[in-house]
């Protein structure tokens, strides 16, 4: 049995059906038995949903004890009615658990611009909060309760031991459409029993999100509701990590990045209408920032994504995308490899086109897992990102999404 949120010390959770969505669970709650150090990253969209605004306000003290999320309504572009709805969610949780409303992280996902069903959501909170449990089943219910167009639940768990102390980290995520670097319609909630200083946790979350969720794309659209939140309740009992030089901290950061990367890949693999999972690597770059920007430019190119869907070995689209990345790029120094996860074909060698068997390349591109590797030959840094192809099924699905 795979471990989940319920295997992290001091955390309970639940996922319930309240009726906002007709068939699926639509209310998720995560509760720490003690106040936790908390941090979050949010959407870069200028139009922010009401729960995003409220949670940013609540996290000014870097503390929280509960995450509550409804699915089926984004509570975005809902004005004062939606603002009061988000506040009512926090207040209902606070009253039922005898904590402060400011200690509640609020999230929502679903359709934008629909009146927020405050009454149904609040009633659902009151009816279900007593069901909070550390039973494994509760973790599975939680993972399913945050989904919208997803086809499967997304969970991950990692642990490590240091000086006889076991540290646990678990997370759930949702997302399959409106996925784009800088986060999009995706939510991720992470819990850990690691003891860590507040500002260091904030810095660590940003570091890991930049290298995981901010390196994925499905369709180039950024949503109003994106959030990655983490609660660290310290119940593992380790001495509080306060320095980036602390060996236990470095292990924690490494494992947190591993967990977020697992969740990010699951989101891409569930991309709406996607038929391929594509890994993009930019290596031998002069800086990590340059490498990440090039990965994002390639992975977000509609022409590259449609070429991958059509099994078209049109490598010029990849090089053209690099030239549009907003960073210095000299194609005469670049080499490019394309293929599946086991076989890579060199198509450009330091700016010189290489003859290759197009039929063999098309055979490789039939695979569901594809790899693109650009070598810049300007340094030693690299970046990895993940994306999907752009298919006719994606267009069809999103053309009738609300009808």
From TrEMBL:
Protein localization: Cytoplasm
Pathway annotation from the record: Amino-acid biosynthesis; L-arginine biosynthesis; N(2)-acetyl-L-ornithine from L-glutamate: step 1/4; Amino-acid biosynthesis; L-arginine biosynthesis; L-ornithine and N-acetyl-L-glutamate from L-glutamate and N(2)-acetyl-L-ornithine (cyclic): step 1/1
Pfam families: ArgJ
Enzyme class label: transferase
Binding-site positions, substrate: 148, 174, 185, 272, 398, 403
Quaternary assembly: Heterotetramer of two alpha and two beta chains.
Protein name: Arginine biosynthesis bifunctional protein ArgJ
Organism: Echinicola jeungdonensis
Native organism taxonomy: Bacteria, Pseudomonadati, Bacteroidota, Cytophagia, Cytophagales
Gene from which this protein is expressed: argJ
